[in-house]
Give the backbone structure.
Amino acid sequence: MSEFTKSLLLERKGLPDDLRWLTEKYPRETWRGHANVHGIANMWLQRHDMFRELGGMLTNGIGDYREGRLAAPDFARWFAPRLNHFLGNLDGHHNVEDHHYFPVFAKAEARLKRGFEILDADHHTIHEGLERNAEAANAFIRTLQEGEDKQRFAADAYADENSRLIAMLTRHLADEEDLIIPLILDRGDRALDID
């Protein structure tokens, strides 16, 4: 595995230039108008937008609690189902990618294989972040029945884990889209055998 593949997700500024040749052929601003966007590419973009939206909701929600705009019981009722939905769907999405889509895409275009190794490594890093996020969230929820100082400390700890996870996810989603969407646009669902 290359040093770039092993590099920390949060330090990366994007995919290396040698993996961006299809992105240069199909720049992001042209994706929505391309004939091959309807199908798996559109589903992929919608799924990623959902993760971005849910991550933003969790970030805003913990901010509202920390700023006193939500009381502890109201926050707990709001927070727990959204967090579970976010974490569970993200983990499931990554499993499908790792075991189904990435092997198909890497086989279809061998020059992008290293890119899929990078994305797979990201998934492991993000999975560790998901576990830390869930632990911090559970610790925080347990403190909602305790004193305000413990609640504040636990809320701060969760907010830090959430910020880290969202930053990793933001970088990963953009890089994944830059690798996968142009490939789908170039070949189409049927040629990639993913329809």
